[in-house]
Predict the 3D structure of the following.
Amino acid sequence: HFNGIVKNRLKIHAAIVNAQLFGDIVDQYGSFFNYIISFFPKKERIVNSIVDMASIPTSSEISDAISSDMRKRGFRFFGTVICYSFLQATGFIDDHLNSCPCKSHPTPSEKI
């Protein structure tokens, strides 16, 4: 029935607090996008050269820095691996295999 629902009170509380902190970031930076992109060199998305599944990273210096900053702000349950997955899912980092038809091939000046 409800086996998929988060039952851990700490995670439920963290979701509420994280949402409030998210709003604080939006107020400070104008958008969450502006906050995230501020960690990227030259404010450009990253397209990694990935030859096989074993080469796909699970974190980076950028995800380390973002998750560290978010922890300092009070966020919980948002470590570097979760952060890196978020960056992949939202297109800030393209880790598609080089042979994948979804692989981006941006020009060097392409920005998000």
Remarks:
- The two ends are 41 Å apart (CA to CA).
- The helical segments are 9-29, 32-37, 61-73, 80-89.
- The longest helix spans residues 9-29.
